Amino acid sequence: MLALGLDTSTGSGSVGLTDGQGLAAELNLRSATTHSGRLLPSVQALLAAAGETLDRIDLLAVACGPGSFTGLRIGMATARGLALSIGRPVTGFSTLQMIALACAASWPEAARMPVCVVLDAGKGEVYRGLFKCEGDDIVGLEPEAAMAPREAERRMPDPCLVCGDGVPACGGALQRAHVGGRIFMSAVPSIGLALARRAVAVAGRHGLAGLAPLVPNYLRLSEAEIHFKE
User: Fold this and answer.
1) Could you please report the per-residue DSSP string of the chain?
2) CATH code at position 80
3) What pLDDT sits at residue 222?
4) Do 104 and 89 share a structural domain?
C-alpha cells in the first residue's frame, strides 16, 4: 500500500511517502513562500524523486491540527482535492500525535516515558498533548487542549520527553536541556512521513473502513468565530 502524507499545520510543513516496507521519502516545505504556493510542487517533486506517480497512491493522510488555521485548511483542501482526482481515500491525524511519534522514533528512550508535545498557539497559549508511544502505537494520556504555558508546564509529568516549538514559551525552566527527568526538544520535526506511515499501519490493521474521517482539530475558535459570537 502506497501512502502520501501532507502536513501544513505549522511553519515546518512536509510531505512524505511510504509503501510500509522499503520506500520511505520525505521533503520539508520550509521556505519563504506560503504553503499554498509550495505544497503541490513539493508533492510532484517527492513523487518524481521516488519514481512514483500520483495515480499509484492508494491512500492520502493529512495533519488535521491543531496548528495554523490557514495552514490546516490548505493541507486538508489539497488532500481532499488530490484524493478526489484519483478516487482514493483520505484520512486525518492529530498534528500533536504525529509530532509525538516522530520524536519518539528519533529518540528511542521515549518508549520508556510519556511524550508531551507543546506547540506555540499564539495569544499567549500553547497547544498541548500528552502521549505514550510504543513503536507505531500511540495512546493519548490526556485530552489535547489549548492552555497557558504555565499550566502546560505544571501538568508535565516527570520523567517525560517534551517537544515542539512551544517549549521556549513554557518558561525559563523549559529552555534548559534537562530538568529533572525531562528531556527537551524545541524543534518541530517533519511529520509528512509519520503521517504516511501511520495511515499504512492503521489501514493494515483495520482496513480502509477503519480510517478516521477528515475532520479539522482546531482546539479553539478562530478569530472570526470569536468576533461572530460577540
Assistant:
1) --EEEEE-SSSS-EEEEE-SSS-EEEEE--SSS-HHHHHHHHHHHHHHHHT--GGG--EEEEE--SS-HHHHHHHHHHHHHHHHHHT--EEEE-HHHHHHHHHHHH-GGGGGS-EEEEEEEETTEEEEEEEEEETTEEEEEEEEEEE-HHHHHHT--SSEEEESTTTGGG-GGGGSSEETTEEEE-S----HHHHHHHHHHHHHHH-GGGSPP-----SS--HHHHHHH-
2) 3.30.420.40
3) 53
4) no
Structural domain harbouring 106: 96-185
Residue found by looking up cell 493494515 in the block: 204
Reported as a pLDDT band with limits 50, 70 and 90, residue 33 is low
* Banded pLDDT at 109 (limits 50, 70, 90): confident
The pLDDT of residue 177 is 47
Instruction: Please list, residue by residue across 80-119, b when 16 or more beta carbons sit within 10 angstroms of its beta carbon and e when fewer do.
Output: eebbeeeebbbbbbbbbbbbbbbbbbebeebeebbbbbbb
Q: Are residues 139 and 149 in the same domain?
A: yes
pTM across the whole model:
0.91
Question: Residue 216: is the preceding peptide bond cis (ω within 30°)?
Answer: no
